[in-house]
Every structure is written in C-alpha cells, then in structure tokens.
Amino acid sequence: MKQHNMSKCAIKIPFTLCSFTWVIASLFFMFAASPTLATDDDYLSALENETGNSVPSKKVSAADNYLDALSTEAEASAHVPANTDNTKPSKEQLALEKLLQKEKPTTFKYYKKLNRWDKATVVDLYRTDNVDTSTKFDHLRKKILDLYFKR
C-alpha cells in the first residue's frame, strides 16, 4: 500500500506570518488581561480614598490636581462663578464645612464653589437627614455634585 505525504497537500503558511500573528495575539491578551491597568486610574483611587475602601496612597495629590483641573475646566465651559458672596455662614454651615473638609476633602472642593443658595440646600439636607454618618456623607456628596453640575 502506498502512503501519501500529507505535507505536500497542505497549504503552507510562511513561518514569519505565523510567528508575527502569535506575537501580536500574545501582546493583546497580556495587556487586555492586566489587572493593573484599571487600578492605576487616579480618579478611581481618589474616590476609593474618599469612601474609605482603600488606604490612602501617594496618588491622591495627582488625583487632586486632576480634579482641580477638571473643575476649572467645568467652570470655564459652564460659566459657573466661584462663590464670592460676603454673607456670614451659620454655625451649622461652619460645622458642616469643617466636617466635610476633614472627612471628605474632594467633596469639600466642590461644595465651596457652590453659590450661597445651593450651600443652604446642602446645610438643610445635613440638618434634616436622619441616617448614619456614612450614609449621610453619601447623600451630601450626591447633592453637592448634583448642584455643582446642575443635574
């Protein structure tokens, strides 16, 4: 019985094309499956630091710079004036500002740029919200960002 050599019948692909395809596919999967790409985001680390889900890292200053630049850009494009009123804040407002500045500095940056009426709305929410402290901070952060971005 005569045997046929199958290598003569098969379509031959140049070796360089196969190795090039293999290298490209390997690089794609190596970078696509890399968990460090998602954890290096400064914005996400700043939010994690504010919510208390991770320990503070050295990236907070870079995140703060990013947030400052973002808020400056938002003010310029939306024509949102910085808070420049000269009225004296109430004792409740001062207490809230001190607490926000200590506990949630990123949220405080947005709060201090609100106008006096929006600040009064936030103080009213702080006064009337009868939930635990962490939930109250979540409600305040959402309200402040909604007022700042006019949602």
Question: Can you walk me through this structure?
Answer:
The model has no long low-confidence stretch (mean pLDDT 75). The chain starts with 14 loop residues before the first helix and ends with a helix. It is elongated. Helix 3 crosses helix 4. The chain has a domain at 80-151. It is built from eight helices and no strands. By secondary structure, the protein is an all-alpha fold. The protein has helices at residues 15-32, 36-39, 42-51, 60-78, 91-103, 105-111, 116-128, 133-148.
Helix percent band: 55-70%
SSE string: HHHHHHHH
**Structural class of the secondary structure composition?**
mainly alpha
Count all strands and give the number. Answer: 0
Radius of gyration: 27 Å
Biggest sheet, open or closed, and with what strands and sense?
Answer: none
- Gap between N and C termini: 82 Å
- How would you describe the shape? elongated
Q: Which range does the strand content fall in?
A: under 5%
Instruction: Give average pLDDT, whole number.
Output: 75
Low-confidence stretches: none
- Report the total helices: 8
Topology:
Blueprint: H1 15-32, H2 36-39, H3 42-51, H4 60-78, H5 91-103, H6 105-111, H7 116-128, H8 133-148
Helix pairs in contact: 3-4, 5-6, 7-8
